[in-house]
């Protein structure tokens, strides 16, 4: 049966009237597939569900159950998994190929594991179709079930030929937790009569929407950063199968039509090979033909780009595959009125089904070209034997944990690196086995490595669908020296034991009996969680308001140990606890958090304050709360929740904004406010928050929350917003055709800027003098005066990487970016930017722990 007839059969019953509200019952998606010969032993989705596919939104467990049914019934189908989601839902993929290939999957996977070595591949083509990474873009997952059934059951010659020479991987749901959140919402608000009004609750999700995962994160921005379990499993799955082609299926605004790549040609990242663009264009001919036959209008070459490598359609492009994005106008339920008529869920399923077929047909037709492209991609990236490699020397100063975060990221992306066996010196700086690594440029993943560290400020087209830069050196706060060629004997593939916790397997504390205190350098990232664990168990913990150092004897050598301001002291003599108990609790926390703890036998320090000084301040227990719900930015709320929950193990309450007026805020020590309009809060809310600060509480606010606080006189410091900065741009003589470019110039899509930091300020303890942050909003503080203190300000030449108009660069220069405003017994901490952007900005996220532990007690 021809493809066009198959598609027509799928679309025959998809006709709905275009009126706003009075609609018939949902149309039925016909999956009988007419005269196609089907394997009767394979259950169709409709037979499995007991109702037509798409009549109700499926849950993730139903999808998994159906995939398992196909695997049990068809010799063409087996299952693979990308691991569990945060809420422990299994991310299953249907592996569909011929019976013969199924029996040889171990050998096929062994062949795939050799791809990066540049060896010639003679095995089957690998096609990965992945759907619904945004949980409220549900038509993709439903189309995936229809297509899985089609490939499993169809007896058409072309399907048999495809499966003899290809392995098709189908992942219906890449965001199980958000997918179920949305399915429940859509089903709960679906009536017997369809309501297409865009204001109907079915199409207007509550906060948070199903787009994000458990922590409200956009997983289609996490392919590079790998902050979330789902992403980690998905990238591991990608490198396991090393697909030749990846289809990435989404939904977009309901007033659009249908999109497939290529995207905007001037907005392809320069490191993507030209051959990749050419193959994408050839594949597009198959999608055009399929949608033309279905009479479905579409567009390409506009709106969407192929720039940021952290997305499902672009990550393959820097890893030897060809990724293609598909976007279907969304019904966000069953049916929704749009500028192009009524958009239905059924049409979305049918369109994605159509481009699923065109994807496998196009990839199969271009099989040899795709195989050759992948082989060529890796063939020129092989290291030469017995040659000293040139590469990057990388250090996370005095913070092995942050160095290990980079190592973990490299390992998941299959980037090769080496530990150091001894210190290296470069430009007067020491790079130690403690906190440094070396990564060679010449290696199979050199393209991805270059992309991770790429910095650029000049662009052909300054329009970006997402961020314009993602330099990992800035994100992790690293010191990177390029073009280094170390001796072979200082490199090893095995990790070095870098402090006493990894050398001592004893459960008993190792510190001398005559110790008087235990000390922790605050530059260590895990020290924040370590502190919370001890304080929560009633151990007295103090932080140093100044830097200090002590002398120790090791191996008959006297060495000086330096401790930055903010470093931690645990006095061993404490009220209500024995010395042995304090040692044991500290040892347990240090072991869990892998924090290097130094014992001292004297309260006298070599330089700086002594241990009994008033400049060692006791840390109080913290009880934080995040204002969440409608009016707050779910992504940023989720980032703070993730950080406190997973990185610090601090219990935190998420409280919806509309509940603030009736809440007793005295039970909390800190209130976090993110980007947002907070329209459900009013003057009563402002008075309550103002009194909270006067009584000793701390508000930690960022971006638009600062504007809300300032307008309601909770924050005195003036904030310059987008309205202020818009006056910088001259629109005189602007032509109509120039409007898009003018708008792009005014947009800050995500640029990395440098802050000059006052390292003596408690808010920045443990941080370097210069900190890079991701800026994606035109906002800064006005020039400061008492009672404000500035912890950080934009540097005079602030742009490090990415696009930012010169007007912004001049305006932001030397403006305050981090402030603390004292009011009564408490304070307001203000950040003009998101200091933990997408939970990857480890070089600056320490400010949140500093605000929790140090600002409350700071003078």
Overall geometry: globular
The main pleated sheet reads as: 9 strands, mixed
Radius of gyration: 29 Å
Low-confidence stretches: 1-5, 7-26, 499-503
The termini sit apart by: 79 Å
User: How many β-strands, per DSSP?
Assistant: 35
Tally of helical segments:
25
The fraction of residues in strands falls at 15-25%
Q: Could you say which structural class the secondary elements and strand pairing correspond to?
A: alpha+beta
Write out the strand line-up for the largest beta sheet, numbering strands in chain order.
26-25-27-28-35-34-33-30-31
Task: Please bin the fraction of helical residues.
Answer: 25-40%
Integer average pLDDT: 92
Can you describe this structure?
The protein is an alpha+beta fold and 859 residues long. Helices cover 30% and strands 21% of the residues. The chain is built from 25 helices and 35 strands. It has a nine-stranded mixed beta sheet, sandwiched between helices. Strands 1-2-4-3-5-7-6 form a seven-stranded mixed beta sheet. Strands 15-10-14-11-16 form a five-stranded antiparallel beta sheet, with helices on one face. Helix 1 (3-11) packs antiparallel against helix 11, helix 6 crosses helix 11 (345-365) and helix 17 runs antiparallel to helix 18 (579-593). It is globular and about 90 Å long. 52% of the residues are buried. Mean pLDDT is 92; it is low at 1-5, 7-26 and 499-503.
């Amino acid at each position: 049966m021809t493809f066009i007839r198959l598609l027509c059969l799928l679309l025959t019953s998809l006709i709905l009237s275009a009126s706003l509200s009075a609609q018939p019952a949902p149309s039925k998606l016909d999956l009988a597939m007419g005269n196609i010969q089907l394997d009767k032993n394979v259950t169709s989705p409709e037979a499995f569900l007991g109702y037509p596919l798409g009549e109700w939104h499926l849950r993730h467990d139903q999808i998994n159950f159906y995939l398992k049914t196909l695997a049990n019934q068809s010799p063409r189908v087996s299952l693979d998994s990308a691991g569990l989601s945060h809420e422990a839902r299994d991310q299953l993929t249907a592996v569909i190929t011929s019976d013969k290939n199924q029996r040889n999957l171990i050998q096929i996977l062994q062949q795939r594991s050799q791809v990066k070595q540049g060896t010639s591949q003679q095995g089957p083509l690998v096609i990965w179709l992945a759907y619904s990474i945004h949980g409220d873009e549900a038509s993709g997952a439903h189309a995936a079930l229809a297509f899985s059934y089609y490939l499993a059951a169809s007896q058409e010659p072309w399907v048999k030929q495809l499966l003899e020479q290809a392995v098709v991987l189908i992942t219906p749901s890449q965001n199980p937790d958000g997918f179920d959140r949305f399915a429940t919402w859509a089903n709960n608000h679906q009536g017997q009569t369809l309501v297409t009004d865009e204001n109907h609750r079915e199409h207007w999700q509550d906060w948070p929407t199903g787009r994000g995962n458990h922590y409200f994160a956009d997983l289609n921005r996490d392919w590079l950063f790998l902050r979330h379990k789902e992403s980690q499993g998905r990238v591991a799955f990608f490198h396991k199968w090393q697909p030749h082609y990846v289809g990435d299926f989404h939904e977009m605004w309901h007033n659009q039509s249908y999109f497939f790549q290529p995207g905007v040609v001037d907005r392809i990242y320069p490191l993507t090979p030209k051959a990749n663009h050419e193959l994408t264009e050839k594949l597009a001919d198959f999608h055009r033909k399929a949608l033309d036959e279905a009479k479905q209008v579409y567009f390409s070459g506009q709106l969407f780009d192929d720039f940021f490598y952290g997305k499902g359609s672009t990550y393959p492009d820097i890893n030897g595959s060809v990724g293609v994005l598909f976007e279907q106008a969304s019904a966000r339920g069953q049916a929704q009125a749009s500028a192009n008529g009524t958009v239905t869920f059924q049409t979305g399923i049918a369109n994605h089904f159509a481009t699923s077929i065109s994807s496998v047909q196009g990839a199969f037709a271009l099989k040899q070209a795709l195989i050759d492209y992948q082989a060529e991609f890796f063939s020129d990236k092989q290291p030469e034997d017995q040659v000293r490699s040139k590469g990057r020397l990388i250090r996370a100063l005095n913070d092995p944990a942050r160095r290990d975060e980079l190592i973990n990221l490299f390992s998941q992306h299959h980037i090769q690196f080496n530990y150091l066996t001894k210190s290296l010196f470069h430009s007067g700086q020491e790079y130690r086995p403690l906190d440094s690594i070396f990564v060679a440029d010449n290696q199979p993943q050199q393209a991805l490595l270059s992309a991770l560290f790429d910095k650029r400020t000049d662009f052909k087209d300054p329009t970006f669908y997402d961020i314009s830069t993602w330099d990992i050196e800035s994100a992790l706060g690293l010191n990177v020296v390029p073009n280094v060629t170390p001796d072979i004997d200082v490199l090893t593939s095995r990790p070095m034991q870098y402090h006493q916790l990894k050398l001592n397997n004893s459960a008993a504390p190792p510190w001398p009996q005559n110790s008087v205190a235990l000390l922790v350098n605050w530059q260590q990232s895990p020290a924040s969680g370590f502190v919370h664990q001890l304080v929560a168990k009633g151990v007295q913990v103090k932080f140093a308001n100044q830097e200090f150092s002590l002398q120790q004897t090791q191996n008959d050598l006297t060495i000086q140990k330096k401790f930055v301001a903010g470093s931690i002291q645990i006095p061993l003599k404490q009220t209500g606890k024995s010395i042995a108990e304090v040692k044991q609790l500290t040892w347990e926390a240090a072991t869990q958090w892998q924090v290097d703890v130094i014992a001292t036998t004297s309260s006298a320090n070599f330089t700086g304050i002594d241990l009994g000084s008033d400049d060692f301040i006791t840390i109080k227990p913290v009880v934080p709360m995040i204002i969440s719900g409608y009016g707050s930015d779910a992504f940023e709320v989720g980032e703070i929740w993730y950080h406190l929950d997973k990185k610090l193990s601090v219990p935190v309450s998420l409280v919806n904004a509309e509940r603030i007026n009736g809440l007793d805020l005295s039970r909390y020590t800190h209130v976090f406010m993110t980007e947002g309009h907070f329209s459900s809060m009013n003057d009563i809310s402002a008075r309550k928050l103002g009194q909270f600060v006067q009584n000793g509480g701390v508000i930690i606010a960022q971006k638009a929350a600062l504007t809300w606080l300032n307008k309601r006189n909770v924050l005195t410091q003036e904030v310059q917003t987008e309205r202020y900065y818009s006056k910088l741009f001259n629109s005189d003589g602007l032509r109509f055709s120039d409007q898009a470019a003018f708008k792009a110039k005014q947009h800050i899509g995500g640029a990395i800027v440098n802050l000059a930091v006052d390292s003596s300020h408690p808010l920045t303890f443990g941080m370097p003098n210069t900190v890079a942050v991701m800026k994606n909003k035109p906002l800064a503080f006005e020039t400061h005066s008492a009672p404000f203190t500035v912890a950080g300000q934009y540097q005079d030449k602030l742009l490090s990487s990415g696009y930012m108009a010169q007007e912004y660069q001049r305006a932001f220069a030397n403006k305050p970016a981090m402030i603390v405003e004292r009011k009564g017994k408490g304070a307001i901490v203000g950040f003009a930017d998101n200091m933990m952007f997408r939970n990857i900005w480890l070089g600056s996220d320490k400010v949140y722990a500093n605000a929790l532990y140090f600002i409350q007690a700071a003078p």
